[in-house]
Every structure is written in structure tokens, then in C-alpha cells.
Amino acid sequence: MIRRFIRIMAIAGVAGAAGALFAARPEALQPQALDGLSADPARGEAVFWAAGCASCHADADAKGDEKLVLAGGQRFASAFGTFVAPNISNDVDAGIGGWSTADLANAMLHGVSPDGAHYYPVFPYASYSRAALQDVVDLRAFLATLPADPTPSAPHEVGFPFNIRLGLTLWKALYLDSDWVVTGDLSPEETRGRYLVEALGHCGECHTPRGALGGLQTDRWLAGGPTPDGKGRFPNITPGALDWSKADIAEYLNSGFTPEYDSAGGHMALVVENTAHLPAEDRAAMAAYLKRVAPVK
Question: Where is the signal peptide (predicted)?
Fold first, then answer.
């Protein structure tokens, strides 16, 4: 009787573990999701700059064409450990040269690697999840035109328990949400700005405070907060603190100069290098959206 009970409990345990693993499997695109979409690398270049790929994956001191060598290596300290940007160059072995378009889409929209593992959300897929599939298709085509670099990706320096990636299943259940943060009756310009700020530009990843598990506190959207290394603060860029005009914001995203003739520094300088590549109407759209965000004191 006891043996039978132990056997039943063992079977139940195995079944429970299998069920948990099944539930923890990363979500991925349906095979037909990309059907009918054709790639345009020229459009993909605009997506590349809007998404800020070079800001993390190129060398922090890169200039000019060096920005297009995406060998990774930048380090990002946080309370959970230090994350290292990987090589996403066109190298087949060290980078993503062997990735399909679906592989890139799964990474950006679902935070899933080609081998089915969860990515850490330091890769801002929580924002990219709002991106249009057409933009991902075009981005993949542009990335394929960039140089290959054989530099191996360095491992993240993350200790227990954060090195157990299955735990990211819970994180995604709590925080991976492709709904728009700012809703309501937006103009076409504001709607375009929302797409650039909330999705491709992933501005909320820095300018929105985070909770204990690292999820964005969207009730204080773009209200600023401490930097991940704890050594500074990201500014509040809602109308409750940023009183710049729409033209002031658009100019800052183009030149990096503030209305007080100060200039962007730190990682924001890299962001401005990206937004300066965008059409003027896109920078104006981002400014229009920021003027519509709920003010936070």
C-alpha cells in the first residue's frame, strides 16, 4: 500500500514538473506570421536608428561607420548583476548572421532565443513587443548588410537565483504587455510619436521607475528614476517636470542641445546620435507624444 502511494506520488510529481516546464516554455511566433511580408533594407535602416541598436551593441566610443560594427561588449550594471551586450553582427558563428527573420522577430517581440531560451529583459523586448512585424522584417534585411565581426559574446555576470532563466516566465507574465501605455484620442502625429517612444525607441526602459523585480511602473510612465547602477537618476520627461516646447524637444533629439544651451551627455548622447538619423517629422512626432503624456510631478 505504501509502495503504491509512493509510486502514485512520484508519477504525480513527474507530471507536475512536466506541466510546469510546459507552462514555462517561451511564447513564439506562429509559423505563418511573416507570410506576405517582403523586406526592404532601406526602411530597415530607419528602424535600426529608431530602435537604438548601435547604442548598446556597438562600442561605446564608436564613431561614423564604426557604429555599424555590432560586436557587443558594453557592460550594464544593475541590482541583478552585470549584463553584457552580445555580438549581433552578421557573423554566422559569433553574431546573428545565421538567424532567420523569424528568429529576430521572436527575440524582439517575445524575448526568446533561437534555441528557445528566455532573454533577460535588459534586452528591451518589453518595449519592442509593440513593434510592427513589417519593421522587424525590414530591420533583419538591413542588419544582413552590416559587417560581420568574429568577436565572441561575453557571458552575463549574473548570480543565483537570477541566472535561472526559467524564472523569467513569471517576469514575462507580470510585465510583458504589448498594450499601449498612453491611450485616448491621439492625432496621427501623436500616434506615430507613441510608436517611436513606446515601441522602437523604448524610452520608458530608462525614464520610467521600476519595481523590486525590475518591471516598469507604468502608473509613473516616463517620470524618471534611479539608474540601474544606483549612481544617478534618469530625468522625469513628462510635462510635469519637462517644460520644453515641442520645438525644443525636437531640436534636442536632433542636435542634443537643450534650450539652456547645455548638451546631452552619457548614454543619452548615444540616443541623440540615433534620433538625429530620423526624419524631422519623426522627431516632431516624438515631441508631440511627450507633450501628451500624463504629467507627473
Answer: 1-23
